[in-house]
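user: can you give me the structure for this one chain? tokens are fine.
assistant: on it. calling the predictor now.
[tool input]
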Amino acid sequence: MANELKRSERVIIGGKELEAQINPENITLLQRYDRDMQMRELSEKSIYSYKCDIIAWFKYLVKNQFNPIVTDLSEDDIEEFIFYTKEMGNHTERIKRRMASISAFYKFLRKKKIIKENPMEFMDRPKKGLPVVVQTFLTEEQYELMKLKLSECDNLLLQTYAMLSISTMGRVNAICNTQWEQIDYKERVINDVLEKEGKIVTLYFSEEVRDLLLKLQSENLENKIDCKYVFCTFNKDKWDKTTNSTLGKWTEKIGEMIGVPTLHCHDFRHSGSQLLSLKGMSIEKISELLNHSGLDVTKNHYLRQDKKKIQAEKDKFKL
């Protein structure tokens, strides 16, 4: 049939030797999940498919992410694997099945109270015909255009959200959980911010963002908006912190302003790190600001090569 979906490219991640190196704690968790699936009388075919997807993911962790236990992973870590399978040739439907397998596994871990949150809940499923992840690195020109458009839009909340996100490079969970009492305006830091899975981080912001935060706080007082969270919405007769979904809609609106329709919350992390790199900040310091556990994630997924700089350096050698 002309419209029949072509089979995805097979993604092979190592062999039996790599499989033997999988973190034994992950194997134990998978064994428990296997028993649970059998108790729920899933078909042998379904159980086999789920396990194959999860084992492939485990092998990727061994090869590319220093073999962590899955309970320590963030949505960023999982996104790397999903993006890798797309680069290797998996089509949209195959990627969705991989994501469903990992999500079901995390749901089991949450049901057993092994984890507090399912990181897959913070990842959008790809739509048919669209790429699973479009990583956007705003250029300096786009960044300046964003600042201009936001200053003109007469929406202080939106402006503060965007500028704080790109300045701190905070994950969307951290931005959602930021409270007024955590802000140190003198040192320009936000202390003890709760990220996902109970991780506590410090966020650093610019003088420009400090002024926006002070202005927003003053505006909230004038409008009698009583909420401990910086970014809040009115829901069920009270002010409460915004959800990830709401911040996603705000980001889409900002993207439309500057002609970047694929812009999503996580792109502020990509863009902030890239802009700092272009200005000369070391990868080590950028990695610290991103709260990454190692440099590999920062280098491989948060920075793009500066091709103009590479070409200029090469031209020195006249070859």
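assistant: here you go. Strands lie at 183-184, 189-194, 200-204, 232-235, 238-241. Residues 140-308 form a domain with the hpI Integrase; Chain A fold (CATH 1.10.443.10).
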